[in-house]
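> run fold D-alanine--D-alanine ligase
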Amino acid sequence: MKGTVILACDVYDPNEPELSQEWESNETIQKMEMTILELGYDVAVLSNPTEITSVLCNIPIEERSHWIVWNLVEGYHSPNREAYIPALCEYLAIPHTGSSAAVQTLTLDKYKTKLFLKSFGIPTKDFWLVEDKNQTPPGNFPLFIKPNGEGSSLGIGEKNRILNSKDWLEVLPTLVETYKSILVEPYLSGRELTIAVIGNKGSYVATDPAFVDYPGFVYSDLVKSKENLVESLDFLVPEELSKTLENYAVQIANLLGSSGYIRIDFKLEKDLPYFLEVNATPGFSSVYSTLPLLWEKNGKSYSELLKQCLELGFLEYQHHHRYKYAKDRNL
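> ok
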């Protein structure tokens, strides 16, 4: 065997409503497990925090370089929630897939990510952070409002498109009470696009971008379902726009210092692309997740995607200086 892969995940539980969309289906985990087994690894599926930490702590120190944790844990509420697994693995000197805790924490905060990337010239429209339910609209209508620290389109519906003061007063208070921190942007009327970047620092490759088409005006939590694929990807992106997005995507990966894989979303206004957000813990379902579909458009199989992501995780462990403290102390 090549080593052992731990699939660390939140598996769907109907008795855990807080997880909402931030979970993986049993079908997804089973498909990942089967594919990784076929690649020659042992696999363990763990979904309980105490179980995950106990297993990792009890891996013999001299064997830790042969284990790797696939980070699928997204949790809820905490601004650190997508960084749980990377931070723990780095501290224990155990390889993991995907980006570091620092990248995960930054990209979960849409406002801070926009501030950072805008300072380097990545095109964004104006944006504001609102944490007071009595705040007056900071910009001109139409506006779009959404939770600042959520994924999977949580808290987003058709009503998030704010056309006037009445809409603002109706929608904002509930969002603030539920999600605390709200991102406000001008509403962009053009099509949405998504693109993935695979690789570690110095070896990034962008996939072809795709338009994301969905019913209605808003990519809502009803559209972005893990029950079925409601949205569709259209890869007929004009060549000039495609090249522009690929350049922006690689630039963003370099600025963030991402590892393994990220997915980046843009939206058009008057045919110009504007950055929306980065997802550093994208889904890996072969049925409903966008990143595998983008990858397969490049003519590569699901198995090849998982294989490369694992190899990138081991390479990061071998070469990145962020593991030095743990290696020195633990090994």
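Residues 13 and 298 are 34 Å apart (CA to CA).
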